[in-house]
Write a structure and sequence with these properties.
The protein is mainly α. A hairpin with a 5-residue loop joins β6 (922-925) and β7 (931-934).
Length: 935
Amino acid sequence: MPGRERVELLGHRAPRTTLAKALTAARAHGQGSALQLSGDAGVGKSALLAYASAEQRARRGTCVRISAVESERGLPYAVLHQLVYALRASLARLPSSPRGVLETLLGSHPPGLAPVNALPHPLLGGRDADEEAWDQRSFSLSVSLLALLHEAAEEAGSLLVCVDDAQWTDVPSARVLGFIARRLRTEPVVLLTAIRADRAGGLADEHLPPVRVPPLEAEDAERLLRLRFPDLAPEVRTAVLRGARGNPRALLDLPALLDADQRTGRAPLPDPLPVTPRVARPVLERVTALSPAAAELLMLAVVEGDATLRTLWAVQPGAGDALAELERAGLARVPPGGERLEFPEPLVRAALLHDAEPGHLRTAHRMLADAPDQTAERRAAHLSAAALGVDETAAQALQEAALQVGGEGAAATAVAALRRAADLSPRPAGRTRRLALAAAAAARSGLLTEAADLTRHTAVVTAGPVDRMYTALAEAALLLDHECDPDSAVDCLVDALALGSSLTDEETDLTALRGELGSALLFARAMAGSAPVLNTSSPAGPASGPGEEALLVGPAGPDPSWRLLSRAWHELAAHGSLGLSRPGTKWSVARAGERGEVPTRVQGLLLLARDAYTRGRWQEGEAFALEAATLAESRGLRVSRAFAAAQASLFAAVRGDVAAAHRRLATAEEGVPGCCTGVRAAAAHTRLMLALAREDGVAAASAGASLPADSTVLGDSLLFDRVEAALVAGMPRVARDLLSPDAAAAGGGAPERRAVPARAAGVLLTEAGGAEAALAGLPSVLRDVAAPFEKARVQLFLGRRLAEAGAKEQAAALLDAAATAFRGIHAVPWLERTRSVRRGLRITGQSPLVQGELTSQELQIARLAASGLSNRQIGARLFVSHRTVSTHLYNLFPKLNVASRAALRDALQAAGLDGAEPAVSGDAEDRDGGDAEAT
């Protein structure tokens, strides 16, 4: 309807449907009704009243909205005064008798007629002898008000009366409105009231037809949160949804109380989440009415959080009556057969903890810390909360719990616990050690701002070697991902490992710390552009720095993430892909995600992306790279984000998605200085592949010149790519120089690591006349080359040389194999190039088929059958009978040398007759702003 006012309301579909039906019945059929919205505070009752008002105005009816006020609850007829005042324009059309009664209510009564409020009333201490007179006047007022509502509804066609916070309605007004509600069936009037479910009195006592307003469904709650607070980090959004439990007011208030770092996940969330006074007030009102025993049990339960009955009974024996009182008040409950106390209303814990006196809280924490069967983590938290000043017992308990904590967000929790332990430490040495441990934990979780603050605190005191090694983890993370200086990060980590080389494990257990420093060093070297590899030629281990032998040895038991990732770097350096270390790398990625260790997860995802590129699993690898970029951006890890974006751009480049490649390249280079060699090399590799995709010799030569001679993180195909770039640029001498022994020695790295790509690249130098001889050694080359992209390019180049030499049958076989491989990995530019060369041969691999041997109709039918259509569907599309289609298929099968419909597609593709464009993976922005693949 033109000009219609709209009120967008998420969720509450059932109540909205009920309200719409009531408004329609009043407008279209003159059938009035009275409804009472009932629900918890903040659940959306007022929003539904606003929705109903907008719908009523859209139907061109009259709407009156009034609100009962708690402070006016003792004032007789306060709510009716609001209603009559809002409809005072219709008073003049009433007969004199009802008009006079209502004017009395407004205070503009005729001479000699006493105001309604002057009549005796029970709330005002009225006399029993006057009760009959008061009832008569109340009845008169009810009838007069009903006439006024009828008059207002007749004028506009229908009338909606909304009463918000109806639990505060004064008793006389409630009685009159209840009287009217029971007589609206024949009037075009809808009376809509909203009350809190936990409050009795007022209109709640009139028992109007109820409409329950439940909390929002999970999907609607998340949508509301995304619309109003799109910048929330995923883990923060999950915490808010869990705390609000579908309460719209809580969903809107909670994020507004968090600072920018907390909303984006860069700082830990408070426990419990903060609350506003308007959210806390309804809960506190009910708490004040509890008995002392029930209030104490409730305080113990909210302090404990996930409270078991066993723990509560150990601290407060014989609290069964108190629990029953809490259940009657709706503040707590125990599910049937359950062992834990639950809070049915959202934010009960937050409201009570923020309002409690500090002394009462400390007492509760001390009681709970001594409870039997208390976990080490919970006991440490209670001791910390109960401590005043310094307390070594609480500090040591916090330190031990922080080092053992696990689960989602564990790293951030450990940082907060260690920082608190440092504050409670009575001795400077203990404070220094705990600050260093906190700095390392902050670096593990990617909380760079907090890591920087902690390193500043540890720098002003004298720290021992172990403390400086822990601090070096945080300093290196800041140098790498905040200052964008990977070279300095490498120096920092090498110095820390050298510092620990003089210490023995008998003095302190340094194996894990050395290994973690070494793993960080491998990643920093990769970002710095140097080969982050171990000396693969020596079984004794690495020779690149003191202390790095910890990368290949470690304590017995399950491998921790640092050791598994170190082995992954080692295997990538030795073989160009992950083999035996692939499952361990995936495990490390999953474990880091559970513990909130974002930098570790990013490093593992980048390793998996590089491995997937080599193995031709590009869709999977692109997903790894995009996830790494999103995670790095969520923590402000600048270099990691840039490198992940560069890796993602490489996948787009080889797929032929030029727009996505350039967009991701811009992201990679945004805000990262030119001294970051690893990112520059990865970006140059993408530009090289973009140039090779379009066979742009000038761009390929420029990009190839800026690539390093050797880089593990860019993969073994780098040498192959540089040789191909030189050939595309028309510089065969440069290509030969790249494969010379001197270049191999200058490139560094393990000789066996360069041998396979060098042999594969050597095929690219084959001249047309020597193609036959190169073909004899091709099987051994292809057997050694593991990368399907590299292998297919070798087949393409040698097939092209054979075609130039006139060996068309042999060329066709190689080109068909290359086309199949390119199609499987979605290497669209190379697939098109292969098809172009293959069409020029005008032959198939198994049959002398040329396009002229198939009639136009046969070719159409073959293509449609290959797409999966039935004979009847093909006939309908080509306007022929299905029998004609069957005859054509019978004739063309021998021409294509196939025996079934299933083989048609491959035969047409091999002959270059499929006529279909290759599938191209595109990019689309997902809801969080990242790239999502759609094939």
